[in-house]
Write a structure and sequence with these properties.
Number of domains: 2
Order of helices and strands: HEEEHHHEHEHHEHEHEEEHHEEHEEEH
Radius of gyration: 23 Å
Strand content: 5-15%
CATH superfamily of the largest domain: Type I PLP-dependent aspartate aminotransferase-like (Major domain)
Helix content: 25-40%
Strand order of the largest sheet: 4-10-9-8-7-5-6
Number of helices: 13
């Protein structure tokens, strides 16, 4: 596509955008003296305007009913999570019974690994990508220690090759084959938080299964960003947060996926709680845990309703738009951002090198570009912040920029480029 670096052209693209009205469904930050250009939906999504209404409904029912709201609220709290399952399943490409909304992301990963990381004999290693999100790194390390294993001997980390930023998928597949009879679990991030690299989850899952390993995914940066088909890919398990691309409140609830092939396996070890117990007899309060069939059997406590209400407000928007339309705009918006950054880079190539370390191939990325500024980028980041650009700084010299299709505009992208140009010009 032949883009132009001008405000008029960006505004024209916005006028032609079939999803342009959805920007008005969100509350845009107003804390800055300048118009805020928000590019951190990969860290915390913006608040849907409907969110307050959804939460207020539960506050009113709490005031009216007290504990009886579990059964008599407009949306009874006893079964509240059931209202979210189908919409969440549509986002990740799953059957409704394979998904439940509950707990937090790392909590869910731990609960799932209790069931699916079962080291035995020689098959006792975990394979993951190097420089995974720190919470995942800590979770994997502690799971190994829980089983009396060490990270040095039992964690296989796949690194980028020397001088490269991205992990080559052939290296992942090679390591799976090389250590096939030693790998108990493959657990990776579907989209790497630092580089924005999207891994071929289907291919890696198939390769893992071929050597007898269980395969799970952290979808924190994929859910609401990437179109997925977890059921068809036969992923064993996955978990994701709801507060990034899914716009569902700071530290909001998490999604959990367990493939239906594991749905009727009460023999799977798990850390149990009463909300995962058979709901038909839950209130008999009898000993002996009988898990619900499917993903619901991994629940512990009753639903955090206010957080789920915020999530419901956002899921309704996703259900209305659909992942196909969302991904179409995502690719156009991200391609325009890439064009703008490269234009600025060309202008200053002899004085300041901007390197987009996110894959150029649109099929290998989502709504994020990570820009490495050689020679020191913090002054550039600070300049952008002063202009009202909300992006994300990662050491040593990376600015992560995420143009989210539901609320970012092409005009936002234009102004990012304008201020980036001004920042580099002021520095050089």
């Amino acid at each position: 596509m032949n883009f132009e670096n001008s405000l008029e052209y960006a505004q024209q693209l916005d006028q032609l955008d079939p999803l342009k009205s959805y920007r008005d469904r969100f509350l845009l930050p107003s804390f800055h003296k300048n118009t805020v250009r928000y590019f951190t939906g990969n860290s915390l999504g913006l608040q849907p305007k409907s969110c307050a209404t959804y939460i207020q409904q539960e506050l009113e029912d709490w005031a009216k009913w007290g504990v009886e709201g579990h059964f008599y609220a407009k949306n009874p709290w006893f079964s509240y999570h059931e209202n979210l399952s189908k919409m969440a399943a549509n986002i990740v490409g799953a059957l409704e019974k394979e998904v439940v909304i509950t707990h937090s992301l790392t909590t869910n990963l731990h609960l799932l690994m209790v069931s699916f990381f079962r080291p035995e004999g020689k098959r006792c290693k975990i394979l993951c990508e190097a420089k995974a999100f720190p919470s995942d790194q800590y979770a994997l390390e502690s799971q190994l220690k829980f089983h009396g294993l060490s990270t040095k001997e039992h964690l296989i980390e796949i690194h980028p090759r020397t001088g490269e930023e991205l992990i080559r998928e052939e290296d992942v597949l090679e390591q799976i084959q090389l250590h096939g009879d030693e790998i108990a679990l493959i657990m990776m991030g579907g989209v790497n938080y630092y580089t924005g690299q999207l891994f071929d989850m289907q291919k890696i899952t198939e390769a893992g299964h071929q050597v007898g390993a269980i395969v799970g995914w952290d979808l924190a940066h994929a859910a609401g960003n990437i179109k997925m088909n977890l059921h068809d890919w036969e992923v064993d398990f996955a978990a994701w947060c709801s507060y990034k691309y899914l716009n569902s409140s700071p530290g909001g609830v998490s999604g959990l996926f367990v493939h239906e092939k594991h749905a009727k396996r009460p023999d799977l070890p798990r850390f149990a709680g009463w909300w995962g117990h058979d709901k038909e007899v839950r209130f008999l309060m009898e000993p002996g845990f009988h898990p619900m069939e499917g993903a619901e059997g991994w629940q512990l406590s009753n639903a955090p309703v206010l957080g789920m209400a915020a999530h419901w407000a956002s899921l309704e928007i996703f259900d209305e738009v659909g992942m196909d339309a969302l991904c179409n705009k995502r690719d156009r918006l991200t391609a325009y951002l890439e064009f703008i950054i490269r234009k600025v880079s060309e202008k200053y190539h002899d004085r300041c090198q901007l390197e987009i370390i996110t894959p150029e191939d649109q099929s290998k990325r989502g709504a994020q570009l990570s820009v490495f500024i050689h020679g020191g980028g913090k002054p550039v980041f600070d300049f952008l912040t002063e202009k009202g650009v909300v992006a994300d700084w990662r050491e040593p010299n990376v600015i992560r920029v995420a143009p989210v299709p539901l609320y970012n505009s092409f005009e936002d992208v234009y102004y990012f480029g304008k201020y980036l140009d001004e920042a580099i010009n002021a520095r050089v």
